[in-house]
Specification:
Elements: H1 3-17, H2 21-28, H3 32-39, H4 49-62, H5 68-73, E1 80-86, H6 91-105, E2 110-116, H7 120-132, E3 137-140, H8 151-155, E4 162-165, E5 174-178, H9 180-193, E6 199-203, H10 209-224, E7 234-236, H11 250-263, E8 268-270, H12 274-286, E9 296-298, H13 304-308, E10 315-317, H14 320-337, E11 345-348, E12 351-353
Parallel strand pairs: 1-2, 1-3, 3-4, 4-5, 5-11, 6-7, 6-8, 8-9
Antiparallel strand pairs: 10-12
């Protein structure tokens, strides 16, 4: 398709979206008040069936779209919710988007999804779009910029009802907390019952909440079992993992296993997710070792690969449905009551699923 044709189509599309009620009234030679009553769904004895059908047909042909923002100001809900997710978000977050959509649909709402990075202008474009469409609320699952943690919450301040995944860098923010520390507690406790004492763990970084909480959970678990915290058993990612830190190559998996198993004598590894766990299992086998006899491996996320892999991977299920229900519950409370809920945060604890890799 030629560029000129694309631009022409874009302009035409914008024109269709800009159709006003007065345009429909002029086309039909009727009053704008009559058009407003029909398109606003308000019954009126002075507008007959034939006139109503003519107005509705003209609105359809002209591509009329109601001004949702204006309707919202009048107290009319749009029935739309927004979801913001990072372009480089881990796979588990995309599973949560699906769960959010199901939870929203069950409550009579539709969902619009936007993928954002750390570019404030792109985030602002989505906010402008959401405001323009009169969205009733937004679930934001990506807001942790290590250099500017308050950027996303400040931009979202224009939207009255927002629920975040994890605590936002703003006062009085509503959020759902996935207990990453408890993930590690459960994994360590389970591995201890399997006789493991040299438990290694992978962190992607040392600044976002999820990884910080995993470290806390690891240190607390070591202390609770009376074990020393060996820093050599904690592998932390670096820039070489970018731009997709939640994916791992064979070479990187070999590097991690060499450091944790070869140098630090780990007899178990808690991976960052199930994809990492699968790659680590292969790397362990490439060293001539057995899983779980020599090295046990625990994943996180309950991805499909966890049950398909050989051996099947013990994993921590983040309970995406529970997260979605909690987020939509908080959001609808704010929409219905025009104020934050009495308890502005809900914590979701993961569920350990034991399989053959441990």
């Amino acid at each position: 398709m030629k560029r000129g044709v694309r631009v022409s189509n874009l302009v035409a599309d914008m024109t269709r979206r800009a159709v006003r009620q007065i345009d429909i009234a002029r086309r039909l030679g009727v009053s704008q008040a009559a058009v407003s009553l029909v398109l606003g769904g308000k019954p009126s004895e002075r507008i007959g069936r034939e006139m109503r059908e003519r107005i509705e047909q003209a609105a359809k042909e002209m591509g009329y779209q109601p001004n949702l923002a204006a309707r919202q100001l009048k107290g009319v809900r749009s029935g739309l919710l927004g979801v913001l997710i990072g372009i480089d978000a881990p796979p588990v977050l995309f599973d949560r988007v699906s769960a959010l959509e199901s939870a929203a649909l069950a409550r009579g709402y539709r969902v619009l999804v936007g993928q954002i990075g750390h570019d404030p202008s792109l985030i602002e474009q989505y906010v402008n779009d959401f405001v323009g469409r009169g969205l009733d609320g937004v679930v934001c699952m990506t807001h942790e910029d290590p250099k500017h943690p308050a950027t996303v919450p400040e931009l979202l301040a224009r939207i009255p009802n927002v629920v975040y995944l994890r605590r936002p860098a703003v006062e009085h923010g509503c959020y759902v907390h996935i207990d990453a520390a408890d993930c590690i507690h459960q994994a360590v406790d389970h591995l201890e019952t399997r006789g493991r004492r040299r438990i290694g763990m992978i962190l992607l970084n040392e600044y976002d909440q999820a990884n910080t909480h995993r470290r806390w959970g690891y240190v607390e678990s070591m202390k609770r079992h009376g074990w020393d915290v060996d820093k050599g058993l904690i592998w932390v990612g670096d820039e070489s993992l970018q731009p997709r830190p939640h994916e791992v190559s064979n070479a990187k998996a070999d590097e991690v296993v060499e450091e944790l198993v070869g140098r630090s004598a780990a007899d178990a590894i808690i991976a960052i997710n199930d994809d990492w766990a699968a790659q680590l299992i292969k790397a362990v086998k490439r060293r001539g070792l057995r899983v779980p006899e020599d090295v046990a491996v625990v994943g996180q996320g309950n991805f499909k690969i966890a049950s398909f892999f050989d051996p099947e991977i013990t994993t921590l299920d983040p309970r995406n449905d529970a997260f979605a229900d909690a987020a939509i519950h908080l959001l609808i409370h704010m929409i219905d009551h025009d104020e934050p809920p009495p308890e502005p945060s809900i914590t979701i604890k993961p569920r350990l699923i034991v399989r053959q890799s441990t």
